[in-house]
Fold this protein.
Amino acid sequence: MKPPATIETARLRLRPPVMGDAEAIFATYARDPEATRYVSFPTHQSSAEARAYLCRCAVGWAGDGPFTWVILLRENGRLAGAIDIRPQDRRVELGYILGREYWGHGYMTEVVRALSEWVLAQPEVHRVWAVCDVDNHASARVLEKAGMEREGRLRRWAVHPNISATPRDFWCYARVKATP
């Protein structure tokens, strides 16, 4: 599965990140301890870490994923966050981050809904899913508002390095293709 390079919603535009995005990524969310609290990577200490991340994004687009897009506001082109999909046989996992300045505007719900619908429209895909820390109530709400259903608690699922080195509990959310 090779997704489209650009996806547009009513207010947002998704495109693959480029090296020129490093400073905006670092300034918008990667250096912010609040924005990175519930992610799988440590809060960045320099824009060099954002550049290394962008190199990994390019490798994903050149191969079989993960496929990462930056999220841009259509009205002014400002970078607000990022979202990626990770194809896994007949299912696709997604993950995302949004700069704190953009929280509370429904942007991530809009993006998750649009990307989930595109994923489920692919003939070979039957499930789109995501996980979030049980304490990340805002992310859980995004997934619910985007049409995903909470399937259960994954005990000691993964580490959030900005919180603890101990694996934490996560909620698992999914949308599945209707059976014919």
Q: What stands out?
A: The helical segments are 22-30, 47-62, 107-120, 137-145. The first helix runs from residue 22 to 30.
